[in-house]
Write a structure and sequence with these properties.
By secondary structure, the protein is of the alpha/beta class. The protein is built from 20 helices and 11 strands. The protein is 45% helix and 12% strand. Strands 2-1-3-11-6 form a 5-stranded mixed beta sheet.
Length: 456
């Protein structure tokens, strides 16, 4: 992370991070090179994964891994808040229920600080199946986002930026131009409300959980708004934030679907791909879903745009996710073999060709002739060009990269969701949010490994 992450690392450097030692595992890891893919045949690994297109390749191809290695993979999938809760409960009690967990980059500070994740050290990186894994092939930016204090804590399997989507046929039918600014979006929403009464002019995330935070802060970034300043102080009441939230609430409340205040990641996407909305703002990852005729009624009719706000900054919905090994995992070596398989060029290329997902963080795949040929054959060149533009604009400067992320995200999203549902004074609501954020940041971050004073 840039500004926010530097602030966190300065704090982290002054703390004692409990990091699981890998020395005891080195001998077991060597078995990957000495005995090959069947080194851990007969073991079972348990995966705790967040729902979404990021894990479709795992669900689709996992049988091949099991056949190649003799390892059984048991997969549990939950929505994002539940996935976090399940892992926190298991990790904080050292339950050891999971061998692999989805790691959203925004949860890294919370999970790394108490030593809940295994650092992927040189011992791991040297124990590789060379046909499956090459660290240099993993996209540098996404890998860096999952690295803290010099240690890698997850191998990324997704990296996405913000993107604006619209239905081309409807725009063409009414002679409308694609939006370039947030003012254009608001004006188009008002016009489309009359022109297309059976469709919501706009859709975005509105659910009152931290999973909606990217939509809110991505929109606000275009206004030059920052939720926290360089001193880690909340800035919920700054004029730029007030203006941004007023416009976002107007867009969602007046021009969104009836259930806008409760829309999750999945529900937002379904609203657009089932032809119930004309415009949408979310992650670039939705592009291949919206353009997949097996999943989307909008396929072949999706336009892409990079919209900027009043400050001249692009709307950017940042997300990065990887696969991590919990420190309490009972089968770390088998888990590491699974992660190598998951991020092999073969699996990521078939993720593109079979599952139509073009934003895989694997440079070998992204730069291959097969990738370029697939995009051309499937008429996805416009999307890949928009994807590269999104990657050029992506930024994490607006992100609250703190151990208290979940509390911060829930507080912001709940405030905005309530405004979308019930209306009210945005400025007053943000003043209350400011107080809540100050209280969250003032509370000491608990260290599960800290010595109990009563035991001293």
């Amino acid at each position: 992370m840039r500004r926010a992450r530097v602030g966190l690392l300065a704090v982290a450097a002054a703390m004692t991070l409990i990091v699981a030692a890998c020395a005891d595992d080195a001998e077991d890891l060597e078995a990957i090179e000495e005995e090959g893919r069947e080194a851990f045949s007969g073991q079972e690994i348990n995966l705790l994964l967040k729902e979404g297109y990021e894990i479709e390749a795992i669900q689709e191809f996992v049988g091949e891994f099991e056949d190649e290695t003799g390892i059984s993979a048991n997969i549990e999938v939950f929505d994002e808040p539940t996935t976090r809760q399940q892992f926190v409960l298991d990790a904080s009690t050292e339950g050891g229920a999971y061998d692999i967990v989805s790691l959203s980059f925004w949860n890294a500070p919370e999970f790394v600080r108490p030593g809940w994740l295994e650092p992927i050290t040189d011992e791991y990186l040297q124990a590789t199946d060379e046909e499956w894994f090459d660290l240099d092939a993993i996209s540098e930016g996404p890998l860096e986002a999952l690295t803290m204090d010099g240690d890698i804590y997850a191998i990324p399997h997704t990296a996405i930026g913000g993107m604006f989507f619209y239905r081309e046929s409807i725009f063409e039918e009414h002679g409308l131009e694609p939006p370039e600014t947030t003012d254009d979006v608001l004006a188009l929403a008002e016009e489309l409300d009359e022109l297309e009464p059976d469709m919501a002019p706009f859709v975005g995330r509105g659910a009152p959980t931290f999973a909606s935070l990217g939509s809110i802060l991505g929109w606000a970034h275009g206004y030059g708004a920052q939720l926290f300043d360089e001193n880690d102080e909340p800035q919920a009441t700054q004029p730029e934030m007030v203006e941004a939230i007023e416009d976002w609430v107007t867009l969602m409340r007046e021009y969104g679907p009836a259930d806008a205040a409760g829309l999750t990641f999945t529900e937002m996407g379904e609203t657009f791909q089932t032809s119930n909305a004309v415009m949408a703002f979310d992650t670039s990852g939705f592009g291949t879903i919206f353009e997949d005729p097996e999943q989307s009624e909008a396929a072949g009719d999706v336009g892409f745009a990079q919209v900027v706000g009043p400050a001249g900054e692009p709307l950017q919905w940042l997300y990065n996710e990887g696969l991590a090994i919990p420190s309490a995992a009972p089968n770390k070596e088998a888990a590491w073999l699974f992660i190598q398989w998951r991020m092999s060029e073969d699996v990521t290329m078939r993720e593109v060709t079979d599952l139509h997902r073009l934003d895989v963080p694997h440079e070998g795949t992204l730069t291959s002739d097969e990738y370029a040929q697939f995009a051309e054959e499937e008429d996805l060149v416009d999307f890949t060009e928009a994807l590269y533009e999104s990657f050029d604009n992506v930024t994490d400067v607006h992100w609250p990269f703190y151990p208290q992320f979940a509390e911060i995200g829930d507080a912001v999203a709940a405030t905005v969701s309530e405004l979308i549902a019930d209306g009210g004074d945005v400025e007053a609501a943000l003043a209350d949010l400011q107080t809540e954020l100050e209280e969250i940041m003032d509370e000491p971050v608990e260290d599960p490994e800290a010595e109990d004073p009563d035991d001293a």
